[in-house]
Amino acid sequence: MNAFREISSKISAVKLQNRVIALFALVMMTIPLGIGPYPISAMVDVGLYSIVTIGIILLMGFAGQISIGHAAFFGIGAYTSAILTTHYQFSPWLALFLGAALSGGIAAAIGRAMFRLHGLMLAGITLALNLVFYHLVCSMIGLTGGAMGLINIPPLILGGFNFSRSFLTYYMVWIIAIVILGFSLNLADSQVGRTLRSMNTHAGGSENAAQVLGINVNSYKVQILVLSAVYASIAGSIYAHHARVVEPGTFFIPFSVMVVIMALLGGLRSPWGAFLGAGLMIGVREFLWEVMPVFVTGVTGAYELIAYGVILILALLFLPRGLISLFGRAFTKRRATV
Amino acid sequence: MKTDSAVVKDAVTSKKVASDKLLLKVEDVSMRFGVLAVLKGVSFSVPKGNILVIIGPNGAGKSTLLKLISGLLSLQEGEIWFKQHRLSKIPPHRISSLGITQLFQDVQLFSSMSVIENVMVGCHLRTRAGFLSAGLKLPQAQADEQRILKRAMSKLSLVGLEQKAWDNPAGLSWGQQKLVGLARALATGSDLLLLDEPYSGLLADEIDKLNQLILQLQRQGMTILIVEHLTDVLMGIGNQVIVLDYGEKIAEGTPDEIQRNKRVIDAYLGSG
């Protein structure tokens, strides 16, 4: 009887989570009605970073694989979109799809080779991937525009709506982010989520135990890397069509580190953590960009780095499970679902 | 009402008529870690439905042998056959899908999951839903979830821990953790169960319970290979015993034969 009571409470928890997603979507859809264009633009950034960070959380928090090179996948999406639409007049939506496929393909190829290695080697290889991508983009001037980048990237258009306007981009980004959140939460609560956690040696998992239960650990590592790369690529493509300009500096190591900080800050235990981490970091960034110059003269870039470092240290010291740990079970629920 | 020891004796007798169809064959297996020879030309075979007990002092190579069978270590010399399959060069997850699973000495439960989730992971080979169907919660994924939840619960019932299904394994006693590990291994539906020192750290009543479970599994047709150093416990349960000493097989036979074997007595059991 106890087991059945637990199952009933679990069903309630699933329903609660669905309601929380619906409420979250409702809140996010009403936000633009009450704020100006500049905050909307910042919220677009939060949405884009959140999409990438959800992938990082699945990769790091669930599968225990460390990546500090996801700017490369974000950049592959952005540059694929930019190159195909500006040089070859592809439809932006088709370019977005092809960018995601390319990122996923590259992630699969790298993953198959790199996941035979263990520990910090993985982090090192993703870092190297980011460096290679950056230098390739800088050197292939004819295709990528080199250090100057590419301009006049066409906006995404759907049903007569031109998504170059922040207001519309906001809705598109957040609808995609919430769909990705729902997909990722389903994944987290499924046998796939449990399988990923079973091999996470940083969080109570064991690769040996997973393997003797029939789990192809390397295959799952590759698949989750591919999924996170596809998320990053989708965000990158939307970014390119929204900003309408890409330049290599955007896709360098700081971006990769930023999304890892967002994941750690928000919490690696749930995809919800992505929104908290991205929201806080973009909020701090906007504060430093907009408010700090009022009090401090000169370049505020150094303050930005210091602030990020301090936030990360404080979070690791006082909230090692991230901001998500401040919230209830609806966000961190990790139970079998029926 | 039969006592536990009477039940064990009955089961041992019934084991004599176990099928002699070979399930596992280990041929001349040797293993070295650097200059240290851990296993030296070990050979044996296990008929289907038997309980094989491998005993030996610490460092005899028992756990290494289990890891070679489950594929967690790569074979250096010799060959291992399971059913009609050569296990060398087959990765552990494929060996598991052929029908071999292992309970580790330190159990290695997944501490970020509840007890029932641990056992559900053991049902992995019985799921078909991939990333897409799980993420989209397609009917196949939902059906998988329901099926494996039911199966996991039945395995927990088998070991008597269904009431602990939603607890974190860290809150269970060591004996209960071992039983959860056993339930998780059983959830794979394997034909051959490798148990690495399953009795270590268990209380007397927990040892009795585990013995009952092992014999029940054998009656259901499962083949079990136990590695242990608690010889008195195992002599009553195994119908085939192998003794390893410094990586060498020094004896093989029935428990009675082993207990009378002079070389075993000298090397391991002692004369007391």
Compact description:
Chain A has 338 residues and is mainly alpha-helical.
Please give a structural write-up.
The complex is a heterodimer of chains A (338) and B (272). With 338 residues, chain A is an all-alpha fold. Chain A has one domain (13-251). Helices cover 71% and strands 1% of the residues of chain A. Chain A has a two-stranded antiparallel ribbon. Chain A is globular, with a radius of gyration of 20 Å. By secondary structure, chain B is α/β, with parallel strands linked by helices. Chain B has two domains: 1-99 and 191-209 and 223-272, Rossmann fold, CATH 3.40.50; 109-189, no CATH class. Chain B contains eleven helices and ten strands. Chain B has helices at 4-15, 62-70, 92-98, 115-121, 131-135, 139-158, 174-186, 204-219, 231-235, 255-260, 262-269; strands at residues 22-33, 36-47, 51-55, 77-82, 85-86, 100-103, 192-196, 223-228, 240-245, 248-253. In chain B, helix 4 (115-121) packs across helix 6 (139-158), helix 4 runs parallel beside helix 7 (174-186) and helix 6 packs across helix 7. The longest helix of chain B has 20 residues, at 139-158. The two termini of chain B are 33 Å apart. At the A-B interface, helix 1, helix 7, helix 8, helix 9 and helix 10 of A face helix 3, strand 6, helix 4, helix 5 and helix 6 of B.
